[in-house]
Design a protein that fits this description.
Elements (H helix, E strand, L loop, with lengths): L2 H13 L2 H8 L3 H15 L4 E4 L2 E4 L1 H10 L3 H10 L3 E4 L1 H6 L6 E4 L4 H9 L5 E5 L7 E9 L1 E6 L11 H6 L1 E5 L2 E2 L2 E2 H5 L7 E6 L2 H9 L4 E5 L11 E4 L8 E8 L6 H15 L2
Helix pairs in contact: 1-2, 1-3, 1-5, 2-3
């Protein structure tokens, strides 16, 4: 039997409404009704009857629920948690490595992230938001400070870095862009042009290049603990950079979905515990 049918039955039983169940599951009311009809056909018995504007479970539905209730959490896990696909920035992938979630490196384009959320290609994304989309909900996750990474044996920079030194050096960036603007330009108070020698595909690639060159890299405080083996030093930025405010992004249809709310709570707990 299709577990989606049982999951839908449980939601309708708990909500006593096809409409409310459709919001919880994130599908249309018509799809909920169709699933219940399929289940009734397989069982050869009615599960709900109309009473005014509401529905009531039949004796068959009540009996089924007594058997299904103990396994409800297991059904939810089988249907949702294992199958959840989450876009993550690299530093969060390490924090969630043992979460059991399907983690995918987030696209460099935020518009692509939004499009994939709208098309339900991904269930959740961790990103910093610079654009609004009415179909996408954002919830605060954490704030991260930006720092400058450089090779441990850098010949010209000591424990402190001046603004003049910063702009005189070469730089390694990452491809992540928001509204076609690079991260530094978004975060810096008064950004000036920099000499970019390499545009890396990831933070780890960026920092590996930095460790083996005299170029500088802008990274996050959170990332420090994962790259200690590279032999890097980290200094405070000589220019004012705002902190990165990371958000959980998801489709509005999942706002009240119980299983999705549990997913978001789990991700928040793991990220904020670090």
């Amino acid at each position: 039997m299709d577990l989606n049918l049982l999951s839908t039955f449980i939601q309708v039983y708990n909500c006593k409404s096809y409409t409310k169940a459709s919001v919880e599951i994130g599908i249309s009311q018509a799809a909920v009704s169709q699933r219940i009809k399929q289940l009734e056909q397989q069982l050869g018995a009615a599960l709900f009857i109309r009473k005014g504007r509401s529905i009531e479970p039949t004796s068959q539905a009540n009996y089924m629920m007594t058997k299904l209730a103990p396994a409800e959490n297991l059904v939810r896990e089988a249907l949702y948690e294992v199958g959840y696909k989450v876009y993550v920035q690299e530093q969060f992938a390490y924090d969630l490595a043992n979460s059991g979630l399907h983690l995918v490196d987030a696209p460099h384009s935020q518009m692509q992230i939004f499009e994939d959320l709208r098309n339900r290609k991904v269930d959740l994304a961790i990103d910093f938001v610079t654009a609004n989309d009415p179909s996408i909900v954002s919830e605060p996750l954490c704030s991260d400070k930006m720092i400058i990474a450089l090779a441990n044996n850098h010949p010209r920079i000591g424990d402190e870095l001046t603004e003049e030194q910063y702009y005189n050096e070469q730089h390694v960036t990452i491809k992540t862009r928001r509204q076609d603007i690079d991260t530094f330009t978004i975060l810096a108070e008064n950004p000036a042009p920099r000499d970019i020698v390499f545009n890396a595909g990831s933070m780890s690639a960026q920092l590996t290049y930095v460790a083996n060159s005299e170029a500088l890299g802008l990274t996050t405080e959170r990332m420090k603990k994962y790259v200690q083996a590279l032999g890097l030093r980290f200094v405070e930025p000589p220019i004012k950079l705002i902190n990165v405010e990371f958000q959980l992004l998801f489709h509005r249809a999942n706002l009240s979905n119980k299983a999705h709310k549990e997913l978001r709570a789990k991700v928040k707990q793991l990220i904020q515990a670090v």
